[in-house]
Every structure is written in C-alpha cells, then in structure tokens.
Amino acid sequence: QVQLVESGGSLVQAGGSLRLSCAVSGSINSIVHMAWHRQAPGKQRELVAIISTIGGSTNYADSVKGRFTISRDNAKNTVYLQMNSLKPEDTAVYYCYAFVIAGTKSSDYWGQGTQVTVSS
C-alpha cells in the first residue's frame, strides 16, 4: 500500500513563507515524478509545480513562478514546496501527487491535503 503524507500547512500573513513536505511510503520500485496541486473553495484543482525524480526538471504554474520552489529528496522519497511571498490568493488545500511504479503496476497517488491560509 502506497501512502503520501503531507505536512506544513498553516495560517500565515501575506508576504510570509511556508514549506510543505510530502513523504511517500510503501512498497514502491520508483517514483517517476511528484507534484503539488491546490484547490481553492469553489475552484477546480490546479497544478502548482511538478518535479521529475530522475533528472530533477521542474515546471511551475505562472501564478507561482519566482515565488515557489519545488524540490525533492530521492533518498527519503520526499518532495517539498517552498512558498515565499505568499498572497491571499494562494489560500487553498494543497495536495501532493506522485506517479509511482510498484511491482508491475504504475499508478497515481494523492495525499490527503494540507490547508494553507494566507491572511491579508
């Protein structure tokens, strides 16, 4: 059973910073890529940032470029999202995502979500 456990969500003032973490556990062969998505109330879930666990290439939503940084620790099967210069519009539930190869199967896995609230 593969599990993703997120941490780091909190209430922060505009202009502040937070770091989210997501650890993948279970019987896995490899993690192909990991990402952070977010969903604000009344809005669709959107991709925030994605990172390849092999080459380390990254990609970001335009709304967070220059403010957020995604990174990973392959030895710990953990991905991080450093969020700086936070804005009220960053308020959302942030979900960790991983595309995992376990045995002969490859599957999508999601974390339970962590709340980030940015006050103005």
What is the element layout, followed by pairings?
Elements: E1 3-7, E2 11-13, E3 18-25, E4 30-39, E5 46-52, E6 58-60, E7 68-73, E8 78-83, E9 92-102, E10 105-110, E11 114-119
Number of helices: 0
Give the total of beta strands.
11
Rg on CA atoms, Å? 14 Å
Poorly predicted residue ranges: none
Note the quaternary state here: single chain
**Topology as a string of helices (H) and strands (E):** EEEEEEEEEEE
Average pLDDT across residues? 95
Terminal-residue CA separation = 40 Å
What does this structure look like?
The protein is mainly β and 120 residues long. It has strands at residues 3-7, 11-13, 18-25, 30-39, 46-52, 58-60, 68-73, 78-83, 92-102, 105-110, 114-119. Strands 2, 4, 5, 6, 9, 10 and 11 form a 7-stranded mixed beta sheet that branches. Strand 5 (46-52) and strand 6 (58-60) form a beta hairpin. The model has no long low-confidence stretch (mean pLDDT 95).
